[in-house]
Design brief:
Elements lengths: L6 H11 L8 E9 L2 H14 L4 E6 L6 E9 L3 H17 L3 E7 L2
Antiparallel strand pairs: 1-3, 1-4, 2-3
C-alpha cells in the first residue's frame, strides 16, 4: 500500500506493516490536551451534545497540570478519513483553548 508522505501516512504505513487490517472499522482515538480541567470538561460537554456517537474520556495527563481528552470514533482509518476527523476536532478543541495531540488505533 502507498500512503501520502506525511505524519498520518507514516502512521498508517507502520500500522499496515504491523499487520493491522486498515480496510476494517477500528476504534480510532484522537488525543487532545488542555491546561485546565474546566476547558477539557467544556470540550467533553460540547462533544456529548453535538457528536453523541463520539466517546470521550477525560483524565489527568502524566504531565502535571495537563488534562487529556481522548475521543474515540469508530471508523475505517483511511488517510482521508483521519485527516478530515482531525480537522473537525481541531476546530472544536481550539474553541476551548486546547491542543490536538495525534491519534491512534485501540488494539
Amino acid at each position: 500500500m502507498n500512503y501520502p508522505d506525511d505524519e498520518t501516512g507514516q502512521v498508517l504505513a507502520e500500522m499496515h506493516q504491523a499487520g493491522i487490517d486498515l480496510s476494517q472499522s477500528h476504534d480510532v482515538v484522537f488525543f487532545h490536551l488542555f491546561e485546565k480541567e474546566s476547558q477539557a470538561q467544556a470540550m467533553v460537554a460540547h462533544i456529548k451534545e453535538h457528536l453523541p456517537e463520539v466517546i470521550c474520556n477525560l483524565h489527568p495527563d502524566e504531565t502535571p497540570n495537563v488534562w487529556d481528552v481522548d475521543c474515540t470514533v469508530v471508523m475505517t482509518p483511511s488517510h482521508e478519513a483521519i485527516v478530515k476527523q482531525e480537522e473537525a476536532f481541531e476546530k472544536i478543541v481550539t474553541q476551548f483553548t486546547g491542543y490536538t495531540d495525534g491519534w491512534g488505533i485501540e488494539a
